[in-house]
Structures are given as structure tokens and as C-alpha cells.
């Protein structure tokens, strides 16, 4: 009885964690550049002595959905929608390079280019800063050009470049801060060359609200089945104990 109860308990626990991942996806259905977390449950054999017939359930995270989200035209000169497989390099809180697909950029008072969440945007030689300007353009290859303050459009000149890369997406992992990173021993990602982004647009979240809701309902039903099994196991144990007392 206790083995059946333990199996049902591990299944319910794994389903609760999977439900949490689905809820996290739903909470970010309108977050620009968000990639849905993929999670499922799997069986694993309980180690130890005895016959190899005992299996429990555990949550198995299988990474994230790397598919491109819907394109939203904004007309904002600082908004960029990265093409499939292209990532923008930024600095994390520890001063290390990390990657994001969120292309909603900002210019600080000192001209430093950041993401909407305040992460410094990297260029080939470090954080990107933009001088005072009349107009700013971000090219399809990541080049940043400006018309200097007080000048005419004929003086358009490139003053920087976004660091755009094409990492092996199968190796990327998402951190608690929402940024993606490669393993420490992985080689540096290849630079993205040529047309790599669309300016004046943003990539939306690739989370399907309807699909996530259906998945949440499925997980809830599976959780209820595990709870029902635990209750049945408890009732069987109670009846067995009653029969033992009668004997």
C-alpha cells in the first residue's frame, strides 16, 4: 500500500511543478520576445534492492520553444525584431554576457543603449553608447547610424553595432533573470551576418494562450486522478487493517 501511495504522491508532485511552468508561460503571453518553457513528466525506475518493478514519476524540463513569435509593427526607431535563430547579446547583473530575444531597446540619459528591463546592450567591443543625435536608425544587419545633433540628413554615419549572434539554441538555458546562457565550456557563438533583424517592430511572445489553457486543464485532471488514487490507497489500507483486527 505504501508503495502505491508513494508512486501517486510523486506523480502529483511532478504535475504540480509542471502546472507551475504552464502558469508561468500564461503570465508571459504578452511579454515581448518570451519563449515558452517546455515541460513534461516521465517515469523513472526506483533504485535499490529487489525486483526492478518499482517506478515513480518526475518532472522533466526539456528546454524552451525556440519558434519565432508574431511580429508587431511599432514604428519606434529603437524597436528591433530579431530573425529566427538570432539573439541579442546583453550584460547580466554579474557583468557576464547573456542573450535575449526582447528587442524593445531604450536610450539612457548618458546615451547608453539598454533593454526595456535595463540590461546594457553589447556591441562587438562592449556596451553600446550613442552620441547626441537628430535621428537614429538601426539597420537590418545591426548597424546603428545617427544624424549628429544639429546636422543635416546627409551626415548620416554609423556609430555602433549591435552584437547579434547565432548560438546553438539546444544548449541555451534560461536563468531566473529571464536571460539565456550557454554552458561555460561551450565555444563562443557565431556572429549573425547579413540581414538579421527588422527595425521598427517587435517579436511577441510565442506562448499560445489557448494551447496553454488546454494543457493546464489536462494537468489538473491528471493531478485529480493521482489524488483519487491516494485516497483509494488509503481506503484499501484502512480496510486491510480492519480485516487483520477481525482475524
From TrEMBL:
UniProt keyword list: Bacterial flagellum, Cell projection, Cilium, Flagellum
Q: What is its main location?
A: other
Q: Where in the cell is it found?
A: Bacterial flagellum basal body
Q: Which residues form the Flagellar basal body rod protein N-terminal domain?
A: 5-35
Entry keyword Transmembrane helix: no
The Flagellar hook protein FlgE/F/G-like D1 domain covers 87-145
Task: Specify the protein name.
Answer: Flagellar basal-body rod protein FlgF
The chain positions of domain Flagellar basal-body/hook protein C-terminal read 199-238
Q: Output the InterPro entries linked to this UniProt entry.
A: Flag_bb_rod_N, Flagellar_FlgE/F/G, Flg_bb/hook_C_dom, FlgE/F/G-like, LlgE_F_G-like_D1
Q: Which SUPFAM superfamilies match?
A: Flagellar hook protein flgE
How does it associate, per the subunit comment?
Answer: The basal body constitutes a major portion of the flagellar organelle and consists of five rings (E,L,P,S, and M) mounted on a central rod. The rod consists of about 26 subunits of FlgG in the distal portion, and FlgB, FlgC and FlgF are thought to build up the proximal portion of the rod with about 6 subunits each.
Supply the PANTHER family for this chain. FLAGELLAR BASAL-BODY ROD PROTEIN FLGF, FLAGELLAR PROTEIN
Protein family according to the UniProt entry = Belongs to the flagella basal body rod proteins family.
Keyword NADP attached: no
Which superkingdom does the taxonomy of this entry point to? Bacteria
Amino acid at each position: 500500500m505504501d508503495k502505491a501511495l508513494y508512486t501517486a504522491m510523486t506523480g502529483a508532485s511532478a504535475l504540480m511543478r509542471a502546472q507551475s511552468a504552464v502558469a508561468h508561460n500564461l503570465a508571459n503571453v504578452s511579454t515581448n520576445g518570451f519563449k515558452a518553457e517546455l515541460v513534461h513528466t516521465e517515469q523513472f525506475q526506483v533504485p535499490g534492492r529487489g525486483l526492478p518493478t518499482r517506478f515513480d514519476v518526475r518532472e522533466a524540463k526539456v528546454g524552451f520553444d525556440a519558434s519565432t513569435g508574431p511580429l508587431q509593427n511599432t514604428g519606434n526607431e529603437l524597436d528591433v525584431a530579431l530573425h529566427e535563430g538570432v539573439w541579442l547579446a546583453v550584460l547580466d547583473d554579474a557583468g557576464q554576457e547573456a542573450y535575449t530575444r526582447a528587442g524593445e531597446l531604450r536610450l539612457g540619459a548618458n546615451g547608453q543603449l539598454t533593454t526595456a528591463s535595463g540590461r546594457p546592450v553589447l556591441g562587438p567591443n562592449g556596451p553600446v553608447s550613442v552620441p547626441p543625435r537628430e535621428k537614429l536608425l538601426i539597420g537590418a544587419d545591426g548597424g546603428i547610424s545617427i544624424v549628429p545633433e544639429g546636422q543635416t540628413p546627409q551626415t548620416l554615419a554609423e556609430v555602433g553595432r549591435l552584437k547579434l549572434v547565432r548560438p546553438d539554441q539546444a544548449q541555451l538555458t534560461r536563468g531566473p533573470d529571464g536571460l539565456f546562457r550557454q554552458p561555460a565550456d561551450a565555444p563562443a557563438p557565431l556572429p549573425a551576418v547579413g540581414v538579421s533583424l527588422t527595425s521598427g517592430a517587435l517579436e511577441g511572445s510565442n506562448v499560445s494562450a489557448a494551447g496553454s489553457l488546454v494543457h493546464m486543464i489536462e494537468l489538473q485532471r491528471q493531478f485529480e486522478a493521482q489524488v483519487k488514487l491516494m485516497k483509494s490507497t488509503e481506503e484499501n489500507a484502512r480496510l486491510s487493517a480492519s480485516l487483520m483486527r477481525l482475524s
